[in-house]
Amino acid sequence: DVQLVESGGDSVEVGGSLRLSCGVSSHTYRQYCIAWFRQTPGKGREAVASIRSDGMTRYSPSVKGRFTISEDKSERSFALQMNSLQPEDTALYYCAADLGGRDCYLTAYLYNHWGQGTQVTVS
What we know:
This protein has 123 residues and is mainly beta. It is 0% helix and 48% strand. The chain contains no helices and 11 strands. It has strands at residues 4-7, 11-12, 18-24, 32-39, 46-52, 57-59, 67-72, 77-82, 91-99, 113-114, 118-122. Strands 2, 4, 5, 6, 9, 10 and 11 form a 7-stranded mixed beta sheet that branches. Strands 1-3-8-7 form a 4-stranded antiparallel beta sheet, with no helix packed on it. β4 and β5 (46-52) form a beta hairpin. The radius of gyration is 13 Å and the shape is globular. The termini are far apart.
């Protein structure tokens, strides 16, 4: 089974930056979608950004222009660069995979492999 492991979560000041990383175990899919989601207590899981194997990206309006999703194919890892962080960005951040996925919509039910999450706190 594919494993995803997030890292990079931390506490940061308002206006600061943070870079999250998601390591993905080996798989044979040539086409795939990787997405970042976030969740806070009492709220549902919110989509942040997604990237397809050919580099196509999607962003939630709440983070567009501040966050950047990218892939390092040599490392089989995915990053989420977060700039201009605000208190409302505080959440547990998850990466998720839709192996074989094509459209990479920012919808949680499309993704069937999830990591354990990494906490981001902005204050």
